[in-house]
Structures are given as structure tokens and as C-alpha cells.
Specification:
Distance between the termini: 21 Å
Number of helices: 10
Radius of gyration: 20 Å
């Protein structure tokens, strides 16, 4: 078989380029689904300063549920990375390689921080919380909230790279671009939630519900943009 025939067969057929393009461009929807499932299974994370007894009751008492949630959380991170890869391929094909590179870098940082967050909570549930260490468990629980806050910066960068890059490529309207800029600002503000108690605390409503919900909506909207954008020539 000639090289040209091999290339043609690899880009067509049941598992050709179109199949992979459609699969990875739908990863944003998969990410949102897995993230919501993981959140529902996991339950309410103990707040900053929770007592050692309360933490042990949560992590030990709900050990199986938390570990199952870790699996779905890992799948959510995996699909977020593929969503970013599809975003990068679309931007590169549109001549916006700089914004595509920013999407790759920011998604890698988001993935690393979220995997660290998942590892800490899974470790607490698996054995640490049940070990009887009265200082390590509260410290690690507080660390999870610090990680939640710090993920705001690369999350905002990912949203910025997608919003600015697709706008520069002419694939989204000025109105949608303006909404994307507003989400970037709200994301950066998520990295300032260090107040002791209340809405703006690491475990406050903004970090727990408002900012994550905004981020999920952005992924859903821009996943549709990717699905409607022209197919990449050699992305997959």
C-alpha cells in the first residue's frame, strides 16, 4: 500500500480523523457530566477549621463514596484535558498558535492541581483520617481548600485563552467574547478568596458554588462553539 493510500485510510473510515475529531470536541460535555457526578457522590467537603473528630467521621464514614468520587473526578480531569487539546487544535488551525499554546499550558496546570486535590482527599479517606493523627488530618483538609482557591488562576487562564483565541479567529461573536472576558475577571477574583469566614472565604459560597458553576457553563458554551467550528486539517 502506498503512503498516499495509507494516509487516506487513516483519515477516513469508522475510526478515521472525523471520528477522533468528533470525540475530542465533545469532551467538554463529558467533563461537565463527570464533574457533577463526582460532586454529588462526594458530598459536602468539611470546612476550614473542622474538628478532627468531624473530619474522621466524614472521611472514614464515607470512605467508599469518596474513593468512587475520585474515579469520576479523574475522568473529569481527563476529559478537561482533551477539551483543551481540541481547543488548541482549533486555534492552531485558525492561525492562533499563541492562544493555543496558552490553552495547553493552563490546562496542564489545572489538571495537575486538580489531581493533587483528588489525591489528598482520596488519601485522607483511604487511610490518613483513620490513622488517629489529630494534626495531620485537619492540616490536609485545609490544604484542599487552599488548592481550590489556587486553581482559580490557571482556570481563568484557560478561559482567557479560549475566549480571546476564538474571538481573534473570528469564531465567536463580540457579545460572547465580552461574556468570556467577564468570566476571566470572575475567575481571577476566585484566587482572592482568603477572608476568614463568609462568602469570600476559601470554603465560602463563591469558591464552592458560584465560580465553579460559572466555569462549567463556560465549558458547555464553548464546547458548542468547537462543535460548530470548521474541522481541523491535521489535528487528529
Amino acid at each position: 500500500m502506498s503512503a498516499s493510500n495509507t494516509a487516506t485510510s487513516s483519515s477516513s473510515g469508522k475510526y478515521g480523523r472525523a471520528f477522533w475529531e468528533r470525540l475530542w470536541r465533545g469532551s467538554g460535555n463529558n467533563f461537565v457530566i463527570f464533574a457533577i457526578v463526582a460532586y454529588v457522590i462526594y458530598g459536602s467537603q468539611p470546612q476550614v477549621g473542622a474538628s478532627a473528630d468531624g473530619l474522621a467521621a466524614f472521611y472514614v464514614g464515607h470512605r467508599t463514596r469518596i474513593l468512587i468520587s475520585a474515579v469520576f473526578s479523574g475522568l473529569a480531569v481527563l476529559n478537561l484535558m482533551w477539551f483543551a487539546a481540541a481547543l488548541r487544535a482549533t486555534l492552531a488551525d485558525a492561525g492562533q498558535d499563541g492562544w493555543g499554546g496558552a490553552a495547553t499550558a493552563s490546562s496542564a496546570a489545572v489538571g495537575a492541581l486538580f489531581l493533587l486535590l483528588i489525591a489528598v482527599t482520596a488519601g485522607l479517606a483511604y487511610s490518613i483520617a483513620g490513622s488517629g493523627n489529630q494534626s495531620l488530618t485537619p492540616g490536609l483538609n485545609d490544604l484542599t481548600w487552599a488548592l481550590v482557591v489556587l486553581t482559580s488562576f490557571p482556570r481563568a487562564m484557560l478561559i482567557m485563552s479560549g475566549s480571546f483565541g476564538l474571538w481573534r479567529a473570528g469564531l465567536i461573536s463580540n457579545r460572547l467574547f465580552g461574556a468570556g472576558v467577564a468570566v476571566v475577571v470572575l475567575g481571577v477574583l476566585g484566587g482572592t478568596t482568603w477572608v476568614n469566614g463568609g462568602l469570600w472565604a476559601p470554603d465560602g459560597a463563591y469558591s464552592r458554588f458560584i465560580w465553579p458553576s460559572i466555569g462549567l457553563v463556560w465549558v458547555l458554551v464553548f464546547n458548542r462553539v468547537l462543535a460548530r467550528s470548521p474541522a481541523t486539517r491535521a489535528g487528529w
